[in-house]
Design a protein that fits this description.
205 residues; 0% strand
Length: 205
Protein backbone atom coordinates (compact mmCIF):
# COMPACT_ATOMS: atom_id res chain seq x y z
CA UNK A 1 0.00 0.00 0.00
CA UNK A 2 1.35 3.40 -0.94
CA UNK A 3 1.35 6.01 1.79
CA UNK A 4 0.52 9.38 0.23
CA UNK A 5 2.88 12.23 0.86
CA UNK A 6 0.63 15.21 1.24
CA UNK A 7 1.70 18.80 0.50
CA UNK A 8 2.34 20.90 3.58
CA UNK A 9 -0.83 22.57 4.83
CA UNK A 10 -0.55 25.91 6.58
CA UNK A 11 -1.92 26.02 10.10
CA UNK A 12 -5.21 27.92 10.23
CA UNK A 13 -7.90 28.63 12.77
CA UNK A 14 -10.57 28.46 10.05
CA UNK A 15 -11.95 24.89 9.96
CA UNK A 16 -13.36 25.41 6.47
CA UNK A 17 -10.02 26.57 5.10
CA UNK A 18 -8.25 23.67 6.80
CA UNK A 19 -10.75 21.20 5.30
CA UNK A 20 -10.27 22.75 1.86
CA UNK A 21 -6.50 22.50 2.16
CA UNK A 22 -6.74 18.87 3.27
CA UNK A 23 -9.10 17.91 0.43
CA UNK A 24 -6.85 19.66 -2.09
CA UNK A 25 -3.84 17.79 -0.73
CA UNK A 26 -5.66 14.47 -1.13
CA UNK A 27 -6.63 15.40 -4.68
CA UNK A 28 -3.05 16.19 -5.60
CA UNK A 29 -1.91 12.92 -4.05
CA UNK A 30 -4.68 11.01 -5.84
CA UNK A 31 -3.55 12.52 -9.12
CA UNK A 32 -0.44 10.39 -8.82
CA UNK A 33 -2.49 7.19 -8.73
CA UNK A 34 -2.72 6.57 -4.98
CA UNK A 35 -5.97 4.65 -4.37
CA UNK A 36 -6.03 5.56 -0.67
CA UNK A 37 -5.78 9.24 -1.53
CA UNK A 38 -8.66 8.87 -4.00
CA UNK A 39 -10.84 7.40 -1.25
CA UNK A 40 -9.94 10.21 1.16
CA UNK A 41 -10.62 12.82 -1.54
CA UNK A 42 -14.08 11.41 -2.27
CA UNK A 43 -15.00 11.11 1.40
CA UNK A 44 -13.83 14.64 2.16
CA UNK A 45 -16.05 16.26 -0.46
CA UNK A 46 -18.94 13.86 -1.03
CA UNK A 47 -21.33 15.63 1.35
CA UNK A 48 -20.67 19.08 -0.13
CA UNK A 49 -21.24 17.74 -3.64
CA UNK A 50 -24.55 16.17 -2.60
CA UNK A 51 -25.70 19.41 -0.94
CA UNK A 52 -24.82 21.50 -3.95
CA UNK A 53 -26.33 19.06 -6.44
CA UNK A 54 -29.52 18.94 -4.35
CA UNK A 55 -29.67 22.73 -4.61
CA UNK A 56 -29.31 22.70 -8.38
CA UNK A 57 -31.25 19.56 -9.21
CA UNK A 58 -34.92 19.54 -10.19
CA UNK A 59 -35.33 15.91 -9.09
CA UNK A 60 -34.36 14.88 -5.53
CA UNK A 61 -34.28 11.24 -6.63
CA UNK A 62 -31.44 12.05 -9.03
CA UNK A 63 -29.11 13.61 -6.45
CA UNK A 64 -27.11 10.45 -5.73
CA UNK A 65 -26.70 9.64 -9.42
CA UNK A 66 -25.57 13.18 -10.21
CA UNK A 67 -23.12 13.18 -7.30
CA UNK A 68 -21.69 9.90 -8.58
CA UNK A 69 -21.44 11.35 -12.08
CA UNK A 70 -19.61 14.35 -10.66
CA UNK A 71 -16.97 12.19 -9.04
CA UNK A 72 -16.61 9.99 -12.12
CA UNK A 73 -15.98 13.11 -14.21
CA UNK A 74 -13.58 14.49 -11.62
CA UNK A 75 -11.58 11.28 -11.29
CA UNK A 76 -11.41 11.03 -15.06
CA UNK A 77 -9.85 14.49 -15.31
CA UNK A 78 -7.91 14.44 -12.05
CA UNK A 79 -4.64 14.31 -13.97
CA UNK A 80 -5.35 17.87 -15.10
CA UNK A 81 -5.96 19.22 -11.58
CA UNK A 82 -3.00 21.38 -10.57
CA UNK A 83 -4.26 22.86 -7.31
CA UNK A 84 -4.60 26.41 -8.64
CA UNK A 85 -8.00 26.51 -6.94
CA UNK A 86 -9.17 24.39 -4.03
CA UNK A 87 -10.31 20.87 -4.87
CA UNK A 88 -13.76 21.75 -3.56
CA UNK A 89 -14.13 24.71 -5.92
CA UNK A 90 -12.94 22.58 -8.83
CA UNK A 91 -15.31 19.75 -7.90
CA UNK A 92 -18.37 21.98 -7.42
CA UNK A 93 -17.79 23.48 -10.85
CA UNK A 94 -17.82 19.94 -12.27
CA UNK A 95 -21.02 19.22 -10.32
CA UNK A 96 -22.65 22.27 -11.84
CA UNK A 97 -21.79 21.09 -15.34
CA UNK A 98 -23.03 17.57 -14.57
CA UNK A 99 -26.42 18.89 -13.48
CA UNK A 100 -26.65 21.21 -16.47
CA UNK A 101 -25.81 18.42 -18.88
CA UNK A 102 -28.36 16.04 -17.33
CA UNK A 103 -31.19 18.56 -16.90
CA UNK A 104 -30.52 20.99 -19.74
CA UNK A 105 -34.22 21.29 -20.49
CA UNK A 106 -35.15 22.20 -16.90
CA UNK A 107 -32.02 23.54 -15.23
CA UNK A 108 -31.61 26.95 -16.83
CA UNK A 109 -31.49 28.30 -13.28
CA UNK A 110 -30.62 26.54 -10.01
CA UNK A 111 -33.52 25.69 -7.74
CA UNK A 112 -34.18 24.28 -4.30
CA UNK A 113 -35.28 20.67 -4.34
CA UNK A 114 -34.51 18.60 -1.27
CA UNK A 115 -35.99 19.91 1.97
CA UNK A 116 -34.48 17.20 4.15
CA UNK A 117 -30.98 17.96 2.89
CA UNK A 118 -31.44 21.69 3.37
CA UNK A 119 -32.56 21.15 6.95
CA UNK A 120 -29.22 19.41 7.62
CA UNK A 121 -27.36 22.30 5.99
CA UNK A 122 -29.24 24.85 8.06
CA UNK A 123 -28.57 23.00 11.31
CA UNK A 124 -24.87 22.45 10.64
CA UNK A 125 -23.94 25.86 9.22
CA UNK A 126 -26.05 28.78 10.36
CA UNK A 127 -25.08 32.05 8.62
CA UNK A 128 -23.50 34.73 10.77
CA UNK A 129 -25.04 38.14 11.27
CA UNK A 130 -28.65 37.18 10.67
CA UNK A 131 -30.79 37.61 13.80
CA UNK A 132 -33.71 35.34 14.55
CA UNK A 133 -32.51 31.93 13.39
CA UNK A 134 -32.44 30.72 16.99
CA UNK A 135 -36.08 31.71 17.42
CA UNK A 136 -37.49 28.80 15.46
CA UNK A 137 -37.67 30.46 12.04
CA UNK A 138 -36.64 27.87 9.45
CA UNK A 139 -33.77 28.84 7.19
CA UNK A 140 -35.19 26.45 4.62
CA UNK A 141 -38.41 28.42 4.26
CA UNK A 142 -36.60 31.74 4.01
CA UNK A 143 -34.14 30.49 1.40
CA UNK A 144 -37.01 29.17 -0.69
CA UNK A 145 -38.26 32.73 -1.09
CA UNK A 146 -35.02 34.05 -2.60
CA UNK A 147 -34.46 34.41 -6.35
CA UNK A 148 -32.48 31.44 -7.66
CA UNK A 149 -29.21 33.27 -8.41
CA UNK A 150 -29.15 34.97 -5.00
CA UNK A 151 -29.92 31.72 -3.23
CA UNK A 152 -27.06 29.95 -5.01
CA UNK A 153 -24.61 32.72 -4.11
CA UNK A 154 -25.77 32.68 -0.49
CA UNK A 155 -25.53 28.91 -0.23
CA UNK A 156 -22.03 28.76 -1.74
CA UNK A 157 -20.58 31.51 0.46
CA UNK A 158 -22.59 31.42 3.69
CA UNK A 159 -23.46 27.72 4.03
CA UNK A 160 -20.74 25.89 2.11
CA UNK A 161 -18.15 28.50 3.10
CA UNK A 162 -16.53 29.24 -0.27
CA UNK A 163 -14.63 32.51 -0.66
CA UNK A 164 -16.36 34.94 -3.01
CA UNK A 165 -13.76 34.46 -5.73
CA UNK A 166 -14.19 30.69 -5.67
CA UNK A 167 -17.99 30.98 -5.62
CA UNK A 168 -17.67 33.16 -8.72
CA UNK A 169 -15.65 30.41 -10.41
CA UNK A 170 -18.30 27.82 -9.55
CA UNK A 171 -21.16 30.05 -10.71
CA UNK A 172 -19.25 31.25 -13.80
CA UNK A 173 -19.89 34.93 -13.10
CA UNK A 174 -17.82 37.94 -11.92
CA UNK A 175 -16.92 38.08 -8.24
CA UNK A 176 -18.67 41.44 -7.96
CA UNK A 177 -21.89 39.77 -9.10
CA UNK A 178 -21.56 37.17 -6.35
CA UNK A 179 -20.97 39.88 -3.75
CA UNK A 180 -24.03 41.78 -4.96
CA UNK A 181 -26.21 38.67 -4.94
CA UNK A 182 -25.11 37.74 -1.41
CA UNK A 183 -25.69 41.27 -0.13
CA UNK A 184 -29.17 41.34 -1.65
CA UNK A 185 -29.93 37.87 -0.31
CA UNK A 186 -28.86 38.87 3.21
CA UNK A 187 -30.90 42.06 3.04
CA UNK A 188 -33.96 40.09 1.94
CA UNK A 189 -33.48 37.48 4.67
CA UNK A 190 -33.03 40.12 7.37
CA UNK A 191 -36.17 41.89 6.15
CA UNK A 192 -38.13 38.65 6.30
CA UNK A 193 -36.82 37.93 9.80
CA UNK A 194 -37.71 41.38 11.09
CA UNK A 195 -41.16 41.11 9.53
CA UNK A 196 -41.69 37.74 11.20
CA UNK A 197 -40.63 39.13 14.58
CA UNK A 198 -42.95 42.16 14.47
CA UNK A 199 -46.19 41.79 16.47
CA UNK A 200 -49.35 41.57 14.41
CA UNK A 201 -50.94 44.93 13.74
CA UNK A 202 -53.96 45.75 15.90
CA UNK A 203 -57.26 45.61 14.01
CA UNK A 204 -58.73 48.93 12.97
CA UNK A 205 -61.40 50.32 15.30
Amino acid sequence: MITPVLPAVRTTHDPSAAADASATAWALAARGGDADAVEHFVRALHRDVQRYVAHLCADPQAVDDLAQDTFLRALGSLHRFEGRSSARTWLLAIARRAVTDSYRHAAARPRLSDAADWQLVAESAQPRGLPGFDDGIALLDLLAGLPDERREAFVLTQLLGLPYAEAADVSDCPVGTVRSRVARARATLIGLLHAAEEPAAAPAA
